[in-house]
From TrEMBL:
CDD domains documented for this protein: SET_LSMT
InterPro entries, per the entry: SET_dom (IPR001214), SET_dom_sf (IPR046341), SETD3_SETD6_MTase (IPR050600)
Domain SET: 76-294
Name assigned to this protein: SET domain-containing protein
PANTHER family: N-METHYLTRANSFERASE DOMAIN AND SET DOMAIN CONTAINING PROTEIN-RELATED, UNCHARACTERIZED PUTATIVE METHYLTRANSFERASE
């Protein structure tokens, strides 16, 4: 989806250049081509908005944020709306075309390392235990949130009390994830943040009591700041040329999609000293405008953002670590470049070659297993050997993925209905993992059943 958007945008820009330099007869042709490109861009991601149900909700804080932004130079063709299951989002207040700027944020409103350097937090901590600028920004945010005279007071007031990311998962949600890689990812992240907090406090409160008050520097406030930066930060090239992790007020209200309207952003315009968000596909008035958070799998989005994207996410994968080391008495070099190889396995329904003979199974993984199992092909390999090798290959895959499927029982829907937000999200992720693994098992089984003269062995 993203590749299609990128390719169509490149063609759109080419047509723009040709329209500026061509004669009248050629312009007519190029305009027709550009119009067709726009039609195709409109068709990409049509389902996103249809699946979002708008809700009526008080958003005084968000309206105040927009007014505050406009007062400080923000230019926007978007307004705020609330969506069931997605929270806040931004909607086009007018029809916006390809290449047009939906949102423009002055660099002076971007919370970055350059802003940090002007603060007393930086002056106090710049020589403290090799502390990083990212950690200082996190501490600045935790403190600035409670600063009534802050320039960013309106911004902080518009932020949610709880971000509801995977980092906030309770015991029941973590129990629902047990057996998945996401469980390990969240537990490791929680342990890392707890250790980071204990390294900072109460030491900072003791050394800098006027800057770091004990009532502000609590674990809950620290976690709030962590989730703020994980879920709202953007990588931005500032006018100085430095790439920095930043908070961009107002822009943080945009929701993510695997087929977004806004693909390319992140560099401050040197002429206007502002960060612009141009559209890669059209957005009609009243339609939700989506931003790309990046090429992330569901596990990352759950842990650090607190949601799973709607529709098929091509970056949803199951990492499969394969140990290909072999005992070689003569010490000869292995045929593999490494003894530990990780393959990212996607749902087979995403494959363009979903039929016979391999039913959408990932070719890099198949090639790797063939080599590991000694099922490689050469000029002397007979047709019978090829079929036998493929049978061994597919049964090996089943021996890997069948146990994984058994460890992920189907969710009892009655449990989901009364569950808390974190348990529901955990169950949604578990269902996604089961769907990916099930597709691989189904593809292997179909390939074995439909290949001539193969007999499917029952694997326990």
């Amino acid at each position: 989806m993203r590749n299609e958007l990128e390719a169509l945008n490149l063609l759109f820009k080419m047509m723009n250049k040709l329209l500026l330099t061509s004669d009248a007869a050629s312009k007519e042709v190029f305009q027709m081509l550009q119009d067709e490109i726009v039609v195709r861009l409109r068709s990409v991601g049509k389902k996103d908005n249809a699946q979002m149900v708008s809700q009526t909700q008080n958003h005084d804080a968000e309206d105040s944020l927009l007014k505050w932004g406009e007062h400080h130079g923000v230019k926007s063709k978007l307004r705020i709306a609330f969506y069931q299951g997605a929270g806040r989002g931004m909607v086009a207040s007018e029809s916006i075309g390809v290449g047009d700027t939906a949102l423009e944020i002055p660099e002076s409103l971007i919370i970055s390392e350059e802003l940090l350097c002007q603060s007393e937090v930086f002056l106090a901590l710049k020589d403290f235990n090799n502390i990083t600028s990212e950690t200082m920004l996190l501490l600045w945010s935790m403190r600035e949130r409670h600063n009534l005279s802050s320039k960013f007071k309106t911004y902080f007031e518009a932020l949610p009390e709880n971000f509801n990311t995977g980092l906030s998962f309770g015991i029941d949600a973590l129990a629902a994830l047990e057996g998945t890689l996401l469980f390990d990812e969240i537990m490791q992240a929680k342990q890392h943040l707890r250790q980071q907090y204990e390294d900072l406090f109460p030491l900072l409160c003791t050394n800098f009591p006027e800057i770091f008050r004990k009532d502000v520097c609590t674990w809950d406030n620290f976690m709030w700041a962590c989730e703020l930066w994980y879920s709202n930060s953007m990588m931005v090239v500032l006018s100085s040329g430095k790439l920095s992790t930043c908070l961009v007020p107002v822009a943080g209200l945009l929701n993510h999609s695997v087929s977004p309207h806004i693909l390319n952003y992140g560099r401050v315009d040197e002429a206007t000293k502002s960060l612009k968000f141009p559209l890669s596909r059209p957005c009609d008035a009243g339609e939700q405008c989506f931003l790309s958070y990046g090429k992330h799998p569901g596990s990352h989005l759950v842990t650090f953002y607190g949601f799973l994207p709607r529709g098929d996410n091509p970056y949803d994968v199951i990492p499969l670590d394969l140990d290909t080391s072999a005992d070689e008495e003569d010490g000869a070099a292995q045929s593999m470049s490494t003894s530990q190889t990780t393959h990212m396995v996607r749902g087979t329904w995403l494959s363009r070659s979903g039929g016979f003979p391999m039913y959408g199974l990932p070719q890099p993984l198949l090639s790797h297993l063939r080599a590991a199992l000694g099922c490689g092909l050469d000029e002397s390999t007979t047709e019978a050997d090829i079929k036998e090798n493929d049978r061994v290959l597919l049964e090996t895959l089943l021996s890997i993925f069948n146990p994984m499927l058994e460890d992920l029982p189907e969710t009892d829907e009655s449990d989901r209905e009364s569950a808390s937000w974190d348990v529901k999200l955990a169950l949604d992720y578990k269902d996604l993992q089961r769907m990916i693994i099930s597709s691989i098992v189904t593809s292997c089984t179909s390939a074995l059943e439909n290949a001539p003269r193969w007999k499917l062995k029952v694997l326990h």
